[in-house]
Write a structure and sequence with these properties.
218 residues
Length: 218
Amino acid sequence: MELELFSLLNFFTRVFMGIFVILDPFGASSHFLALTSHQKDMVKKDIAKKACTVAFGILVFFSLAGGALFKYFGLTLAALKIAGGVLLFTVALNMLHGKRAGVRTTPEEEKEHESLEDIAVIPMAIPLLSGPGTITTVMVFAGEAHSLINLGMVILASFLALLISYIILSNSVYLLNILKTTGIKILTRIMGLIMSVIAVQFVINGIIDILPTLLKKI
């Protein structure tokens, strides 16, 4: 019983760290402030809340629908681990250079979004929070979940990671005043280092999964 509990706790910790690191709420806070510079504090909190809620819905969808997508497209979990590891390593390299993970928006696009009524969904929820890297991470962990309890932990870890992200985003003004731009970049680089290790492990796990099949064909 204790061994099973330890295994579940270890799985939850891996999932939470993987999702939280790729979310990179510290790096996202600078983009959040730029997009909401003309809004009042209460409005900023509402935007952060809606963005995290939408992102959570997206992650839950891919957590639950990941298996069906595998079957529909004829994919294997091993292939997703290897492809996901390569993708996450690319993201990690950007983070190690102090760049925001998974950002696909240009300054011109951000300026355009400032004039939109609702920026919580685009670009905050998609792609700043629940971008390709985050979705891939969730799908890999959901694929590793061999029981409903494990799958529930993936969803719980997503919720907890986004809850902390909401707290960070809604207090991003104070955070930036304390850490400054340099501090934010240092945290982003640390998260990039952790993400690079997770990415390499994804690839290693994927290779181990397909190794028996490859050996049979030799």
